[in-house]
Target: (2Fe-2S)-binding protein
Amino acid sequence: MTQMTLNVNGSPHSLELAPDMPLLYALRNHLGLNGAKYGCGLGQCGACTVLVDDQPVFSCLTPCTGLEGKAIRTVESLGTAERPGPLQKAFIETQAAQCGYCIAGMLMRAQALLEHTPHPDEDTIREHMASNLCRCGTHLRIVEAISRVARQDRSAV
Ligand code: FES
Ligand code: FES
Model:
């Protein structure tokens, strides 16, 4: 076990972890952040997507070692049930979630896109989101939700 400090959603957390522990396990089992989901564990579904230094990563494949000093963000940083952020609001309005299992990962990958490219066209959204899968098949609504936010006149997402 190794003592390390992970910066998650703007707060430092001192944790004793096996260095090769995937970030997903640290988030869910040690920090109680259950938004990111375990889907395939193989980097093939995107359910576990979080941001590390503003880049989407598969947290099921990202070992905790090497993450000290980096800014980790999870879906919990985007808003709350009472005060959803713009993307969360758009996902609710378009009813983009069915079972919801993929949605936290979808939101974080979309968040990364909108921070980098605030007004992407639909092709760009589709290409960017291609690595995140939805078994319920709500991709059309997910793209519509992201497009809604992309069309908004806003200074920050
Ligand atoms: S659980 Fe990480 S990509 Fe599927
Ligand atoms: S809403 Fe069920 S997997 Fe996407």
Observations:
- Residues 103-116 form the longest helix (14 residues).
- The mean pLDDT is 96.
- Helices lie at 23-30, 86-93, 103-116, 122-129, 139-151.
- The chain is about 30% helix and 15% strand.
